[in-house]
């Protein structure tokens, strides 16, 4: 007997995007297939057929995050002539969905879940490693282009950049002040500042030094 393909109506990518939105809004306890189905105008049974369960949806979302990581990194790099400009966008975009402390807390709760689930942790680690490679490569490009001092260790500086980015998110969420993206860019500038090449003195500075 011939099988007729079932019309999908809403594609999986739209569902996964809706799941990300619901995750930020309600956290692990509130994320259900029914909540995601409402977000995209489907019945929960449709999501059950496609993903099997809430965990199946989370695994599909994690797989998509792994696939998207490399492509998005390439897009960010292609959009900037400056390696440090691309780095700034990459760091801030990583937390772009965390516009409020509550959303930050909800996404952090999902990360805690990832750390206790071997399959989810494997996927989260793959995304982290892709981002780490991108940060190292951008810093190496910045050194080669003279945006950073010669002799700067891209791998060591990348670890500091990522640690500061994660810590900045925590401080911002606790303090609840200002814009996270602006805060991240400010802290990134502070981390990179000691590694910037020496700036030639301005004419007025040189004249002042000569007069002294």
From TrEMBL:
Domain HTH tetR-type: start-end pairs: 9-69
DNA-binding residues: 32-51
Keyword Transferase assigned: no
Gene3D superfamilies: Tetracycline Repressor, domain 2
Membrane-spanning segments: none
Alphabetically ordered keywords of this record: DNA-binding, Transcription, Transcription regulation
A GO MF term: transcription cis-regulatory region binding
UniProt region (Disordered), positions on chain: 193-212
PANTHER family in the record: HTH-TYPE TRANSCRIPTIONAL REGULATOR BETI, HTH-TYPE TRANSCRIPTIONAL REGULATOR RUTR
UniProt-recorded name of the protein: TetR family transcriptional regulator
């Amino acid at each position: 007997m011939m099988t007729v393909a079932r019309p999908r109506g809403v594609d999986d990518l739209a569902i996964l995007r809706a799941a990300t939105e619901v995750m930020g809004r309600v956290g692990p306890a509130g994320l259900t297939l029914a909540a995601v189905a409402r977000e995209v105008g489907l019945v929960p049974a449709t999501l059950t057929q496609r993903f099997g369960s809430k965990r199946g949806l989370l695994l599909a979302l994690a797989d998509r995050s792994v696939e998207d990581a490399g492509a998005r990194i390439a897009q960010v790099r292609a959009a900037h002539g400056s390696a440090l400009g691309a780095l700034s966008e990459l760091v801030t975009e990583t937390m772009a969905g965390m516009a409020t402390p509550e959303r930050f807390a909800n996404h952090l709760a999902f990360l805690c879940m990832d750390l206790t689930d071997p399959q989810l942790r494997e996927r989260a680690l793959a995304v982290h490693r892709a981002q780490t490679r991108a940060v190292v490569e951008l810093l190496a490009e910045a050194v080669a282009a003279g945006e950073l001092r010669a002799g700067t260790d891209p791998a060591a500086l990348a670890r500091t950049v990522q640690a500061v980015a994660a810590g900045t998110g925590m401080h911002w969420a606790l303090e609840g002040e200002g814009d996270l993206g602006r805060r991240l860019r400010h802290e990134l500038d502070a981390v990179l500042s000691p590694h910037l090449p020496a700036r030639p003195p301005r004419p007025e500075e040189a004249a002042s030094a000569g007069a002294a």
